[in-house]
Amino acid sequence: MAPAGFDFAALRQALLRGDAAAIAALYAEDAVMTIVDRNRPPSAPMRLLGRPAIAGFWREVCGCATRHAVAEEVIGPDRIAFVEHCAYPDGCTLVAAMTLDLHEGRIARHLTVQAWDELGETR
């Protein structure tokens, strides 16, 4: 069961549909998203500050013809963790482990650690 005030089922459905606006609406106005991967190592991660910047990220992600799956969720009163599996039209796949810190029913901090297939072009 999701913590009171946060609807994980809505997040899951928005991810599956690729609905960037619905995903962004779940973040606090001053939320922080951090992404770590091969091209953005822990010493220099991508950091997005505020809902508008995070919404832009999700518009870009959801603008691709990508299939998304959500699995392995762990839901606590103030934190949710899950794994997102993505398949891109070019055959590339992505696995992203996400941790969401919640405050007052919204995502306040989001950490993603992700790994891509090596298909030539880096993302």
UniProtKB/TrEMBL annotation:
Q: Where are its TM segments located?
A: none
Task: Please report the stretch or stretches of sequence annotated as the SnoaL-like domain.
Answer: 11-110
Coiled-coil regions in this chain? none
Q: Which InterPro entries match?
A: NTF2-like_dom_sf, SnoaL-like
Q: Which domain of life is it from?
A: Bacteria
Q: What is this protein called?
A: Nuclear transport factor 2 family protein
